[in-house]
Amino acid sequence: xxxxxxxxxxxxxCLALLLIFSLGSGSRKFDGVNDILGPENARPYSALPVTAxxxxxxxxAKSTGVVIAFYSDADAFKKLWISVAHNGDDSxxxxxxxxxxxxxxxxxxxxxxxxxxGVWHHVCGxxxxxxxxxxxxxxxxxxxxxTSVNAGVxxxxxxxxxxxxxxxxxxxxxxQLAVWDDELSExxxxxxxxxxxxxxxGPTDLxxxxxxxxxxxxxIDLSGQFGSLTVDGATVHESGPxxxxxxxxxSMGGFGR
Length: 257
Fold this sequence. Notes:
Layout (H helix, E strand, L loop, with lengths): L2 H21 L3 E3 L6 E5 L9 E8 L4 E10 L7 E9 L3 E11 L2 E10 L6 E10 L2 E6 L2 E6 L10 E4 L13 E8 L5 H8 L12 E5 L7 E2 L9 E4 L2 E3 L20
Antiparallel strand pairs: 1-12, 1-16, 2-11, 2-15, 3-8, 3-12, 4-5, 4-11, 5-6, 6-7, 8-9, 9-10, 12-13, 14-15
């Protein structure tokens, strides 16, 4: 990336920070029909391991869909994704999945009961290698999967849909979406689930951070590393999760390495 391009992105990030201090935090609401952010013609991470985290809030008695997916434009079956579902009976599931072909896919999955909708939850997916993936919910490692699945080289990113195909659209609220080019530690993920700002967690490995504040037609990347997400239909939601705002030097959170 050229110096001028990165400087421009950082300037937009600074402007967004000034606005958010004035307006407060927000989030993006997806309709489950065709709302997405992106797709972008790149992926933020260089290679596995990679960690992706977000805050989610179920807005309907039954909610389902994909939070974020990294996929290949050359092979529709090759992808990594995080999916969530609220089943209408105060039970929900979160899955962190890899797919390498039509018949080769596997997920680390967590299912729970007693969680009402309308409450913020923090979810993380980790793809450590082709044969290791983890799902974290509210700071707890809930499941791991060691099935070998090679998704290959992925070159696209989309929020709210399962890759290129118009399927598994997300139908609730997402905020504070971030990606790290590494495997975050337990302490770092716990910190995020307790409200630490992503800019203060593993900052040297933070490669994308979209607060999803709903301030513009593009969702700014405050990391300054990847780029903005194009908004395609996802509407602004009035409230956001309990996350600290970043300090001027981006260090708020206290979990930097």
